[in-house]
Structure formats: structure tokens, C-alpha cells
Amino acid sequence: MGLFGPVPWSEPSVPAIGGAGVVLRTPQMADYEAWAGLRALSRDFLKPWEPIWPADDLTRGAFRRRLRRYARDQREDLAYPFFVFRAEDDVLVGGVTLSNVRRGVAQSASLGYWMGLPHAGRGHMSAAVGALVPFAFRTLRLHRIEAACVPTNQPSIRLLEKNRFEREGYARRYLCINGEWADHYLYARVREE
Description:
Low-confidence stretches: 1-12
């Protein structure tokens, strides 16, 4: 059983997290239209930084399956996905996830995020990551947050470094991005820092 106990797949199980001009909230079925619209609009923008999308990725059915997986992952303390909303008007701007939660001797998770094209470069994701870090360390009681970044993704490098993630190394062919195994810089932040 996860940190917050079992919940129906359609109900958020983690409280909303406020940050500097953003709110992070567990995805809900009511978010489908905004999410599908933003992802469709941002497809070409996101393509160099993400895995290949399944053919049905933007369908309502695929979104429903995604929500079920999110709820299961939260119940089992495996991942904590959030949509990022602009606080001033509740507009969806992107998403951020703590995944691959490891307990035992590691006490760590992997950070991943995406930003919709119309909202890129405005500081929303930096604020979202800044809000997520205390949740990871205080609420989830993790010791370490890890992130990987394609070396050519300068905005992502700046975001991680601004949020006090330290570059720890270089991993060859680390993740499959846009259908090809890509090298990545490895970053991390630990609770004591």
C-alpha cells in the first residue's frame, strides 16, 4: 500500500502543491481536453526530448488508462505524477513526475517533466520543480532526486541547475528518446543540500 492509501482511480490521492505562480495537482479525467489539446499543439516541440508517443496517445481511452496507471503507481508508492497549472488562471502548462521511487537503502526517485509550447521559457517548470522538491524530501521522505537531460537541451540544463541539481556524470545511450538511444547528463539533488 502506498503512502496515501488506496483510492479510486478517478480521485486525486495527493494534495495539491502550491509554488511560485503554479499549482501542481494529480491529473483527473476532467483534465483530458486541456491535456490532449496542449500535447497535440506541442507535439513537434516535445518530440526531440521524449519517447515516441503511442498511436492512440491523445485519445480519451488512452488518457483513462494513464489515470488508472497513475493511481496504481501512487497507491504502490512507485510514482507521483502531477499536472502543472498556472496559479493565476488555472491553465494547464505542463506536467512533472517523480517516478521509479526506490525505498530501502536508496530512498530516491527520478524526476521527469514536460512543458507545453505556449508556456515554455516563462519559468513555470522551474517553479514547479522548486515546489516538488520539498514534497519529495519532506512528504515522501526521499533522500535523493535524480534527473537525466539530453546534453543539447540547454533550457532543461538551466532549469535543473537553477533548482540546485548537481551534474554527476554522463551516461551513454541512457534513454530512448524519439526512437533513438540518447546520451544524457545525469543530475541529482540530495536532501541534506
